[in-house]
């Protein structure tokens, strides 16, 4: 079986031109694979480059060298060398990214913020809204808030809206960047459940989780990124 | 239907090849090449004098290039060199398949003519000859850009800046163009008015599968609206790519300077 | 001062040739505005300098000239121009539409049907129908060249939006020979149907704007409109008070300072010939009666 994510010898260095052009090595020789129905958790101390790796896998950070192989619609596409619109296609139908913060869209109702990824992929609005509602209910967002834009919500509520938006679609790859960071125990449990469901559906996941307990609950494998940390 | 759309999206709508423009000894635009696909939003960013407005004029055929060419895939699927189009063809393209949203709405609207006629003009230009249907379509579009239809008979000079800009958008979109050029569409508006306009543009672009080339010096506008960014400096494209790549992981010194100059939200 | 003070019909021959060339071009491209080198005339702009130059260029010694202003042969402007040509060209003049070979007009087309040997010369103040919506002459000329006439409908749209119907009552735009949109000068739209398929040649001269345009005989002239708001010539709901005509264009005449008024034909020749032929309106004898009453009271 071919891996869903196949990262080979990826390197990333920041060149800070505003600071006299100093080079800031981030990671080098990053190599790991993720299969379907598997959740890989990246571990390592702060600053080791976990988030950078996640962003490289999403195509948000560019690689200096190496390969980010993504299984997209039955073929493997290398995000490190893909055209912008190929990356956009991959994001639309293959990779989802759940960040810590909701990039609030002004004036759009919460229910629509959550339903949007489904609508973009062609699902009728009412069906999409129904699924969005189910998820919001599970994540304990009261129904009276659904029609309001999330920009005015508390941090925890915004994060749960963000999780709902991230988990709603049927994408085969999900990247989770601290999805439980500011959640209470009940909502953390919901996220663990959601991850388990995604695994059963065959989704490949890469996560960054600081909470040891959660990590134990969701990780199938742990990849220690310390070995990729580039020597300065 | 999905397959058809995918097929169409697979061919570029507009292709610029080595576009250059000099004014005397000054090179305002040098060797710019890119392809734009249906439904894609491309932001051209850079400071005043970087050549972004010149590039927009070259792309929209308002200015003749000194070198290179622009080809556009017409509605019949055939790609044509813009320079080879007759004036009648180019003007027809301009008021049917293209839109142009100016920074100053007074440039894009007839300020003394009612909002309904402003929106209906393009329809009448392509031969619509039924008052009732023209008015109905105009009123439909006013609703879509969130203008109270009770204001349909008022001239835009009685409108606020934000309303004028939304009216300009409706006037452009009424013929369902496939490509819209925008020159600093949010410039000169209050921040809250800007947010509403951007949000509206964002949803219209997605809904209509519009391709957009937007010139802006505001990176927040680029981030919110565009899929791709081209950074211009001294008439050249110095960096291009996926919007979030360029803005989150800028490589060129100038882009890093631009990105670091934004105030945090 | 025995030698004639003026060349025939005032203008010198070279000028007439230049104007005739413009006229020929205008006839060849129906509805197209041909620029010409308009001359200073011994009358102010706005008094028909364009029409006078066209008339001067086409007039021959055998022509019979009629001049009307708002349909009337006896207003100051009409009389002055008629006398001008009687003096400078020595041509015969008439007030009878039927007898005239050249009719110069301001704002009306005679009610009597014109025939093939006649030329109707219009005095035009502003020849450009697109002017009020698009002030740039460079742009309007391009729009004519490319037949981009959407803007004309914008004006009609505005009328309907504001008044519920097309309220443009004069200078109502027409399309000539299915090509050029033309301003028929400030004639009432009542007269528009008379331009269509007219046996007479119609020439338009704008002196200040230096433009000449034409409708050749038997040319299709269509008034612009919308499918659901078709062109309608103005209808009067009363007949002429003097001759009883029911389908002529009427002028409103105030008869006293108590709101009294009457409606009479604007075409004086038409009205008088009808009265001479025995037609009568409700107030035909009114002026005489008034006099009689005045006599009794005094």
TrEMBL record, chain A:
The UniProt record lists the keyword Repeat: no
Keywords on record: ATP-binding, Nucleotide-binding
> What SMART domains does the record point to?
AAA
**Which regions span the lipid bilayer?**
none
Q: Name one GO molecular function term.
A: ATP hydrolysis activity
Sections of the chain in a coiled coil: none
Q: Is ATP-binding found in the keyword set?
A: yes
Q: Which InterPro entries match?
A: AAA+_ATPase, ABC_transporter-like_ATP-bd, ABC_transporter-like_CS, CP_lyase_PhnL, P-loop_NTPase
Domain ABC transporter: start-end pairs: 5-232
Pfam families in alphabetical order = ABC_tran
- Domain of life assignment: Bacteria
| Biological function | Involved in beta-(1-->2)glucan export. Transmembrane domains (TMD) form a pore in the inner membrane and the ATP-binding domain (NBD) is responsible for energy generation.
Q: Which family does it belong to?
A: Belongs to the ABC transporter superfamily.
In Swiss-Prot or TrEMBL terms, this protein is called: Alpha-D-ribose 1-methylphosphonate 5-triphosphate synthase subunit PhnL
List the lineage, top down. Bacteria, Pseudomonadati, Pseudomonadota, Alphaproteobacteria, Hyphomicrobiales
From TrEMBL, chain B:
- Domain called ABC transporter: residue spans: 14-259
* GO biological process, alphabetically ordered: organic phosphonate catabolic process
Q: Which GO terms describe its molecular function?
A: ATP binding; ATP hydrolysis activity
Q: Which Pfam families match?
A: ABC_tran
Presence of the UniProt keyword Oxidoreductase in the record: no
Q: Which UniProt keywords apply?
A: ATP-binding, Nucleotide-binding
Query: Record keywords: Nucleotide-binding included?
Result: yes
Query: Gene3D superfamilies of this UniProt entry?
Result: P-loop containing nucleotide triphosphate hydrolases (3.40.50.300)
Q: Which InterPro entries match?
A: AAA+_ATPase (IPR003593), ABC_transporter-like_ATP-bd (IPR003439), ABC_transporter-like_CS (IPR017871), P-loop_NTPase (IPR027417), PhnK (IPR012700)
What is this protein's function per UniProt? Answer: Involved in beta-(1-->2)glucan export. Transmembrane domains (TMD) form a pore in the inner membrane and the ATP-binding domain (NBD) is responsible for energy generation.
Q: Which family does it belong to?
A: Belongs to the ABC transporter superfamily.
Protein name listed in UniProt = Putative phosphonate transport system ATP-binding protein
**Naturally occurring in which organism (per UniProt):** Bradyrhizobium shewense
Automatic annotation (TrEMBL), chain C:
Which EC number(s) does the record attach to this protein?
4.7.1.1
* Keywords of this entry: 4Fe-4S, Iron, Iron-sulfur, Lyase, Metal-binding, S-adenosyl-L-methionine
NADP recorded as keyword? no
- For this protein, the parts annotated as crossing the membrane are none
GO term, biological process aspect, one: organic phosphonate catabolic process
Record-linked Pfam families: PhnJ
| Molecular function terms from GO | 4 iron, 4 sulfur cluster binding; alpha-D-ribose 1-methylphosphonate 5-phosphate C-P-lyase activity; metal ion binding
**Top-level taxon of origin:** Bacteria
Q: What does this protein do?
A: Catalyzes the breakage of the C-P bond in alpha-D-ribose 1-methylphosphonate 5-phosphate (PRPn) forming alpha-D-ribose.
Q: Which family does it belong to?
A: Belongs to the PhnJ family.
User: What is the protein name stated in its UniProt record?
Assistant: Alpha-D-ribose 1-methylphosphonate 5-phosphate C-P lyase
Organism the protein comes from = Bradyrhizobium shewense
Instruction: Kindly list the organism's lineage.
Output: Bacteria, Pseudomonadati, Pseudomonadota, Alphaproteobacteria, Hyphomicrobiales
């Amino acid at each position: 079986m071919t891996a869903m994510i196949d990262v080979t010898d990826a390197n990333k260095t920041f060149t800070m031109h505003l600071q006299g052009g100093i080079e800031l090595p981030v990671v080098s020789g990053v190599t790991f694979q993720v299969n379907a129905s598997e959740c890989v958790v990246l571990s390592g101390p702060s600053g080791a480059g976990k988030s950078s790796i996640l962003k490289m896998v999403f195509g948000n950070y560019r690689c200096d060298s190496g390969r980010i192989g993504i299984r997209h619609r039955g073929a493997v596409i290398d995000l490190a060398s893909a055209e912008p619109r190929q990356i956009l296609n991959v994001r639309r139908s293959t990779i989802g990214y759940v960040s810590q913060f909701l990039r609030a869209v002004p004036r759009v109702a919460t229910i629509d913020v959550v339903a949007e990824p489904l609508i973009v992929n062609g699902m009728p609005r009412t069906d999409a809204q129904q699924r969005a509602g189910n998820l919001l209910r599970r994540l304990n967002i009261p129904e009276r808030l659904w029609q309001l834009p999330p920009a005015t919500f508390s941090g925890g509520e915004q994060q749960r809206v963000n999780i709902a938006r991230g988990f709603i679609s049927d994408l085969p790859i999900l990247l989770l960047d601290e999805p439980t960071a500011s959640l209470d125990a009940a909502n953390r449990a919901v996220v663990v459940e959601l991850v388990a469901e995604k695994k059963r559906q065959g989704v490949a996941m890469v996560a960054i989780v600081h909470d040891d307990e959660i990590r134990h609950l969701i990780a199938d494998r742990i990849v220690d990124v310390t070995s990729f940390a580039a020597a300065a | 239907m999905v397959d058809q759309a995918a097929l169409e999206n697979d061919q570029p709508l507009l292709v610029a090849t080595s576009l250059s423009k000099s004014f005397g000894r000054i090179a305002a635009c040098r060797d710019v090449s890119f392809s734009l696909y249906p439904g894609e939003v491309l932001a051209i960013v850079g400071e005043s004098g970087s050549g972004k407005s010149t590039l927009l004029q070259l792309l929209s055929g308002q200015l003749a290039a000194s070198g290179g060419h622009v080809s556009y895939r017409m509605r019949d699927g055939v790609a044509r060199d813009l320079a080879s189009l007759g004036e009648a063809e180019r003007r027809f393209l301009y008021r049917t398949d293209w839109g142009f949203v100016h920074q100053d709405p007074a440039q894009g609207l007839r300020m003394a003519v009612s909002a309904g006629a402003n929106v209906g003009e393009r329809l009448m230009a392509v031969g619509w000859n039924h008052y009732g249907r023209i008015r109905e379509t105009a009123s439909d579009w006013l609703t879509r850009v969130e203008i109270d239809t009770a204001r349909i008979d008022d001239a835009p000079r009685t409108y606020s800046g934000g309303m004028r800009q939304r009216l300009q958008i409706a006037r452009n979109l009424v013929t369902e163009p496939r490509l819209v050029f925008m020159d600093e569409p949010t410039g000169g508006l209050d921040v809250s008015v800007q947010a509403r306009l951007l949000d509206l543009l964002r949803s219209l672009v997605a809904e209509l599968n519009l391709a957009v080339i937007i010139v802006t010096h505001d990176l927040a506008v680029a981030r919110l609206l565009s899929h791709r960014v081209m950074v211009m400096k001294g008439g050249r494209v110095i960096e291009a790519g996926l919007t979030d790549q360029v803005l989150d992981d800028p490589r060129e010194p100038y882009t890093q300077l631009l990105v670091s100059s934004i105030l945090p939200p | 001062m025995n030698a004639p003070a003026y060349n025939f019909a005032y203008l010198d021959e070279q000028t007439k040739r230049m104007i005739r060339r413009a006229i020929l071009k205008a006839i060849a491209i129906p509805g197209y505005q041909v620029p010409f080198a308009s001359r200073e005339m011994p009358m102010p702009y706005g008094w028909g300098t364009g029409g006078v130059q066209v008339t001067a260029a086409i007039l021959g010694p055998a022509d019979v000239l009629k001049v009307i202003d708002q349909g009337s042969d006896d207003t100051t402007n009409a009389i002055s121009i008629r006398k001008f040509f009687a003096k400078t060209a020595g041509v015969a003049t008439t007030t009878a539409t039927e007898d005239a070979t050249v009719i110069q007009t301001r704002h009306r087309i005679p009610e009597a049907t014109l025939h093939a040997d006649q030329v109707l010369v219009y005095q035009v103040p502003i020849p450009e129908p697109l002017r009020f919506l698009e002030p740039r002459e460079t742009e309007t000329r391009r729009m004519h060249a490319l037949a981009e006439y959407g803007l004309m409908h914008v004006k009609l749209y505005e009328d309907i939006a504001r008044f519920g119907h097309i309220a443009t009552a004069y200078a109502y735009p027409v399309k000539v020979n299915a090509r050029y949109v033309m301003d028929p000068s400030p004639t009432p739209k009542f007269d528009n149907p008379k331009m269509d398929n007219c046996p007479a040649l119609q020439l338009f001269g704008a002196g200040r704007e230096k433009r000449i345009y034409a409708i050749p005989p038997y040319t299709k002239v269509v008034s612009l409109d919308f499918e659901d708001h078709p062109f309608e010539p103005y209808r009067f709901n009363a007949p002429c008070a003097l001759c009883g005509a029911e389908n002529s264009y009427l002028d409103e005449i105030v008869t006293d300072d108590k709101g009294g008024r009457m409606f009479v034909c604007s075409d004086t020749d038409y009205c008088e010939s009808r009265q001479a032929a025995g037609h009568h309106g409700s107030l035909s004898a009114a002026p005489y009666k008034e006099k009689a009453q005045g006599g009794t009271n005094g």
